[in-house]
Amino acid sequence: MSSTQLPVRMHRAHYETGLLRMKRSCIGAMVLTGIGAVLDLVYMVLHRGEIRMGMECIYLICHFLFLAVAFFFGKYYDRNYSGILIENATME
Known about the structure:
70% helix, mainly alpha, single chain
């Protein structure tokens, strides 16, 4: 029997640990993106006459877009999947 035919099974503790690890990674990415946006704002203020403001504004908008998408995906995920019950299947 090949491995593609076997169902994937996981203990509840491993499943929850994986979810928490993904959540921490997403929060970390959001924090780093926020820091990048703040630093870009500081750069834009310090070099306001020397840079192409249009390109910098597009870059800044991309930061805020990522933050918004990540935040709303987290809300969507929590609303739709927070009540999922994991079956206590026996390992065969």
